[in-house]
Backbone:
């Protein structure tokens, strides 16, 4: 008999030999993948965390808008504008829209409001994804929480209550949001099937 052997081989690959050199195909398929564990109902800690984050967003926006209004037209800003005009390589006269202090002031004010709105929208999207159970948003929101706490600490140095009070309240609330978002029940919700 000159052809390939039929039937199982002794001491080798179980089954017919695959023609040609190289790795041989597996004779048995792997087990089917385990089904993804079902996510349980949303725990109260996640709901509390999201509610606190909504408060943090609102309080932070109030503080940043109040800060933008308090800086607008201030003597400190005028002094900074005059210093920038004296600095070599930073020619405000050639920058469109920044020739006068009033234009400079308005540009900074609008930029502050736009940046505040964009950051608030970004954090709101993270909070919504957190509500849906995306585990990675907890880490992203913890980074945001560190920034909010830092702004709350800096708020103790200001003499403007419209900036300080919302910043400090946001810092306190964000600590509660992080603690609630990292409770045992919340971790089980974010990672179903793992022991928290």
Residues:
């Amino acid at each position: 008999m000159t052809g390939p052997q039929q039937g199982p081989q002794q001491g080798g690959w179980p089954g017919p030999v695959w023609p040609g050199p190289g790795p041989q195909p597996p004779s048995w398929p792997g087990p089917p993948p385990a089904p993804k564990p079902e996510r349980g109902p949303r725990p109260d800690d996640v709901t509390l965390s999201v509610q606190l984050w909504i408060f943090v967003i609102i309080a932070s926006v109030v503080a940043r808008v109040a800060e933008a209004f308090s800086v607008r037209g201030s003597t400190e800003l005028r002094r900074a504008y005059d210093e920038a005009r004296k600095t070599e390589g930073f020619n405000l006269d050639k920058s469109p829209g920044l020739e006068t202090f009033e234009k400079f002031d308005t540009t900074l004010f609008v930029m502050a409001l736009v940046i505040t709105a964009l950051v608030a929208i970004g954090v709101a999207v993270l909070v919504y994804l957190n509500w849906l159970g995306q585990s990675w948003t907890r880490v992203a929101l913890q980074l945001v929480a560190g920034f909010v706490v830092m702004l709350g600490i800096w708020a103790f140095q200001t003499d403007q209550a419209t900036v300080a009070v919302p910043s400090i309240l946001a810092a306190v609330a964000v600590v509660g949001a992080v603690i609630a978002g990292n409770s045992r029940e919340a971790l089980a919700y974010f990672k179903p099937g793992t022991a928290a």
